Amino acid sequence: MKLYNLYFFVITFVLAFINAKVTVLDKKNFYKTIGKDKHVLVKFFAPWCGHCKKLAPVYEELAAAYEKESDKIIIAELNADEEKEIAKKYDIKGFPTIKLFTANTETPIDYTDDRSLEAFIEFLEHETGIKAKIPKPHSDIVVLDSGNFDEEVFAPNINALVLFFAPWCGHCKNLAPTYEKIATDFLNEKNVLIAKIDATKNTVLAEKYHVHGYPHLVFFDGKKKSEEGYEPEIYDGEREEEDFINFLNERCDTHRKIGGELDDKAGRISDLDELAKKFVSATGDELTKIIEKANKLSETINNKYSKYYVKVMNKINDKKDYIDKEVARLTKILEGKNLSSEKADDFMKRINILKSFKKEEKAKDEL
């Protein structure tokens, strides 16, 4: 379900830009476009230039972001390899070169910042006052600052993984999609917080947690962080989705897999698993005694699934084929499309518990 939602958003976001086009300038329309009542951002490029090709999709997104403001600003490009006279006049010596011609002037402002969508928008808003219209992508990452850091990170029993980043950091940008996946993977884990904080704007916190480079990841253990003299753990592992999942599962007692699904241990309680094994082999009065023992044990465990073990035992007493039929029923529901991620987690945990009542098949004798 989570992957479906992510794919839907990506497709929607891409489709929003399909019809957006960068205005193409040449010697016929260049001087008719600049110096008039609209601001004009011009990308001087060459068709063979690798950096120009890399910039192209970002520049298309920029054109889409200002499409609704086309009566005030134009996002344009000019092939400087073909229009050499114009390129010479504006001292174009490398590609891509980007210049902003503000309204009613032919003297441009050189663009020298980062070539990301965010940086372009920040530049244009600063120079022209025109705000871009772009859809803000949904994020499951909690954004921290000095005002909410302690409240979020040091909330009781919360395990927090915090990314200290810098907006200009290339490694941070490369990590961003993976970190977003991790936040979504652990969204249903109420004891796990996936967060980030701009270290360049929150320097006191950055200094406190020894941030000397970016990205800097710090893990705050929910059980230990309230201890006097506690020092959080610096995450220095690999940065693939699986690496983060393994790290968090180990420290947070969670059971997530790549994509956010639960593994076959989720929901299981070891002491009740032992009783489940005994139950499927027991007969007569033994069954009643095990149910009574499981019921007493479940009352001492702060976990709603402890009661489910007792429920399953009572169901098996009434219907011997209950396990197979219930697993099949829940599996069929899980395969449906209209199931929330919370419900999917619940059904997966129930299926795991049901399977703990399966009799272990005896290994075949070796021939």
From TrEMBL:
The record, for NCBIfam families, names: pdi_dom
State the family named in the UniProt similarity comment for this chain. Belongs to the protein disulfide isomerase family.
Kindly state a single biological-process term from the GO annotations of this entry. protein folding
Species: Neocallimastix californiae
Q: Which reaction is recorded as catalysed by this protein?
A: Catalyzes the rearrangement of -S-S- bonds in proteins
In this protein, which residues make up the domain named Thioredoxin?
4-129, 132-253
Q: Where are the transmembrane segments?
A: 6-24
Which top-level group of life is the source organism from? Eukaryota
Pfam families in the record: ERp29 (PF07749), Thioredoxin (PF00085)
* Classification via InterPro entries: ERp29_C, ERp29_C_sf, PDI, PDI_thioredoxin-like_dom, Thioredoxin-like_sf, Thioredoxin_CS, Thioredoxin_domain
Alphabetized PROSITE patterns for the sequence: THIOREDOXIN_1, THIOREDOXIN_2
Q: Which GO terms describe its cellular component?
A: endoplasmic reticulum
Q: Which UniProt keywords apply?
A: Disulfide bond, Isomerase, Membrane, Redox-active center, Repeat, Signal, Transmembrane, Transmembrane helix
Q: Which GO terms describe its molecular function?
A: protein disulfide isomerase activity
SUPFAM superfamilies in UniProt: ERP29 C domain-like (SSF47933), Thioredoxin-like (SSF52833)
Q: What is its EC number?
A: 5.3.4.1
The residues forming the signal peptide are none
Write down what this protein is called: protein disulfide-isomerase
